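Sequence of ROK family protein (Streptomyces fungicidicus).
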Amino acid sequence: MTAPHHPGPVVGLDLGGTKIAAALVAPDGTVLSRRTDPTPATRGPAAVLDALASAARAVGAAGATAIGVAAAGVIDPATGTVVSATDTIHRWAGTALGPGLTARTGLPVACDNDVRAAAATELATLPGDAVLLYAAVGTGVGGAVATSGRLLHGTAGVAGHLGHLPSPEAAGLPCTCGATGHLEAVAAGPAITAHYRRTSGEPAPSLHTVAARAAHGDPHATSAIAHGARAAGRALGGLANLLAPHRVVVAGGVPHIGPLYQDALREAFTAELMPPLRGLRPVPPLAGSDAAVLGAAALARALPPTHAPTTGAPS
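Predicted 3D structure, token representation.
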């Protein structure tokens, strides 16, 4: 096994559309300190990079040897650049994430897609030839796929973007990527909330509001949650038939809204399976909510670090 580039404590940053989770992680994977901050997603790349640097300093970057970032979007790990992204984080596509964060912190930075980084922590618990299907359902719908024990990046790093699979339930609905009819347009948290507003005619600021109303018996809320969950379950069941995975993981904030969502997803998933796979069930990530920050920390140890540009931080 190759020795890690950075054997001391490292900072793991999990950057999503709504929050930044930061942790200082020891070589044995112990989280030494942690912090969560809102993502300034509407203020542009410079504000997001500033927030990442601030979060890293808050958890103890002064004692760290490197930073790993698990970030939303299609990330080129070799350059630390956001190759493409939806506008969940405003103007995020094209951001020099790794170099920009290095310029702000003075530390080497390694980057990859957030869900792929989280999936790496799961893959490490499986046999060396494992096939893994990993989905994250939150502000968007992300995913990662591993075959023969290796996570796939594919052309331009796009492999695993499950949210942009066609979904019958999303027919005609605009997706954040600019197309229509994709899974993210019906299964992500904001999409479920939007479906509830369309069908009920009632305002709802967030998925948490919809979940609370479902818990009190609101039929429109119950239907919206089940609709999004079934769409995700059907898509994952079809992918399971394609990949025959050893494990299917469903992570992210949306599954945490409760059994209504989880049961509907599982039932739809199971209904799609071919007979040899009918014992397969989706499971939560073994590392829980720490999966992405631990995956980010692993990036800092395993991937070639990116370096600050000589002209200073990007704006």
